[in-house]
Design goal:
Elements: E1 9-14, E2 26-31, E3 37-42, H1 50-59, E4 66-70, H2 79-98, E5 111-115, H3 125-138, H4 144-150, E6 159-164, E7 169-175, E8 188-193, H5 199-212, E9 228-233, H6 243-263, E10 271-279, H7 282-293, H8 296-303, H9 309-316, E11 329-332, E12 335-339, E13 342-343, E14 356-362, E15 368-375, H10 379-387
Helix pairs in contact: 1-2, 2-3, 5-6, 7-9
Length: 390
């Protein structure tokens, strides 16, 4: 149930000693199929890690045969040496694959690189490169779960998903547990499909999928330097789905992974879905949802099991969306505690004891809607991010 579920992919995850606590920390995903089409989206942060800059360059060529990933270090804000290290990692990966048990005709320009971990420190190349060699030797058709484990940082569980079509499938793995903010999240995601798909179709499917999924999770309003989402297509199934079918399958996998990311967010005790209804535009719906998701007063109230709809309404009021304050309705877990911008049903009816919380904000301005997923702001989140460097 991972990146190796589609035909023609191998993966591995090994321990190279990059993580201070031990465990798997180098992952490799290899495409053995007839095609090597790729699409990708990256962080919108102007401060981009070296592997992001490298992979963006690689994707301009339109072909990716392998993705090498490491946890235990972000290789971000590391200057020219950090970029040279990324290039060396790609060169080493390509050479190891050319000389592997199942040799691939591959160069450094066919290798995407992803890193995650502490910002501002160079990677220990004396550990990383031997780790890549070990990962090449460990490649297997059932190696997806090991690869998903190797990219974890503060994640508590590995995250994988699969959707099966008619004779073809899409698989994926993701990591991310903090800095989950729009313009992706602090995540690395590798998606694979054995469908036949051209570069334009693949790019369109990925961009629509990320727009509706990863771009709509927001745990703490912080944007990472390393966000990368890659989608590989190898045509091994010899089936070419329609654009709608391909987009639907990729979106379903991304939605599954996005839910897993937000559910595993650092210190979270609540998984909150903010449904904005009746907006005049999609942009308005998203803007309002983001404003509520990022409001610390809302998040702390929910941590304390307080359905404080006044804080929600105040957050809506900070946006530029079209709405009239005396026409906004708010519900928390199905109880409409606010109607027409004023108190309505008894807030004491709201049950917040469970982990899942749904907030509905009806703007009564149009027909558009959007859902943003977030978490509460807990003592554990503050402790983890003040006592631990990640």
């Amino acid at each position: 149930m991972s990146v190796t579920h589609p035909k023609g992919y191998r993966a591995a995850g090994i321990a190279a000693g990059l993580k201070t606590g031990g465990g798997r920390d180098v992952a490799l995903v290899v495409n053995d199929g007839p095609d090597a089409i790729v699409a990708g989206v990256f962080t919108a942060n102007r401060v981009k890690a070296a592997p992001v800059l490298w992979s963006q360059q690689v994707l301009r060529g339109g072909i990716v045969r392998a993705v090498v990933l490491n946890s235990g270090g972000a290789n971000a804000c590391t200057g020219t040496q950090g970029f040279r290290d990324t290039h060396a990692t790609a060169e080493h990966t390509a050479a190891a694959l050319r000389g592997g048990a199942k040799p691939l005709l591959i160069g450094a320009g066919d290798v995407a690189v992803c890193s995650t971990g502490l910002i501002g420190e160079l990677l220990p190349m004396d550990k990383l490169l031997p780790g890549v060699s070990a990962a090449v030797k460990a490649l297997a058709a059932d190696g997806g779960p090991d690869a998903a484990e190797a990219i974890m940082t503060t994640d508590t569980v590995a995250k994988t998903a699969v959707v099966t079509g008619d004779g073809w499938s899409v698989g994926g793995m993701a990591k991310g547990a903090g800095m989950l903010a729009p313009a992706l999240a602090t995540m690395l995601v590798v998606l694979t499909t054995d469908a036949v798909a051209g570069s334009e179709a693949l790019d369109a499917a990925l961009r629509e999928a990320t727009r509706l999924t990863f771009d709509r999770i927001d745990s703490d309003g912080c944007m990472s330097t390393n966000d990368t989402v890659l989608l590989l297509a190898n045509g091994a199934a010899n089936v070419e789905p329609s654009q709608d079918e391909l987009t639907a399958a990729v979106t379903a996998v991304c939605q599954n992974l996005a839910r897993q990311l937000i559910s595993d967010a650092e210190g979270a005790t609540k998984h909150i879905a903010i449904e904005v209804l009746g907006a005049a535009s999609d942009a308005d719906a998203v803007e309002v949802g983001r404003a509520v998701a990022r409001n610390n007063l809302v998040k702390t109230a929910l941590f304390g099991n307080d359905p404080n709809w006044g804080r929600i309404l105040a957050a809506v009021g900070t946006t530029g969306a079209a709405f009239e304050p005396d026409r906004v309705d708010v519900a928390v877990n199905g109880v409409w505690v606010c109607r027409g911008g004023a108190a309505a049903e008894d807030r004491g009816k709201v049950d917040l004891k469970g982990r899942d919380v749904t907030i509905q904000v009806h703007l009564n301005e149009g027909e558009m809607s959007a859902t943003i997923r977030t978490t509460d702001l807990s003592h554990a989140y503050v402790h983890e991010n003040s006592a631990y460097s990640s």
